[in-house]
Specification:
single chain, 76 residues, five-stranded antiparallel beta sheet, 5 strands
Length: 76
């Protein structure tokens, strides 16, 4: 899944190092483990999808529609 959260992954930033990428993977894994059933509802889907990181207002990639969608609700 491709993700653009709060403009943090725009191409104007330099590429991250392997060490930074590994630290990010560990951080995401810890957050996912805390609440594996966390769901978000996005604008293009009537049902919720699992996502460990998104917050209301974030834009995430919808695999079903192959387009960007906005998170409108988060269920912990």
């Amino acid at each position: 899944m491709v993700r653009l959260v709060h403009q943090s992954l725009v191409t104007t930033r330099p590429a991250i190092s392997d060490r930074e990428a590994e630290a990010a993977r560990r951080r995401i894994a810890r957050r996912t483990a805390r609440n594996p059933l966390r769901r978000v509802r996005i604008t293009c889907e009537p049902h919720a999808v699992r996502d460990a990181l998104a917050t209301v207002g974030d834009r995430i990639w919808c695999d079903a529609h192959a387009d960007w969608a906005t998170v409108v609700e988060v269920t912990e």
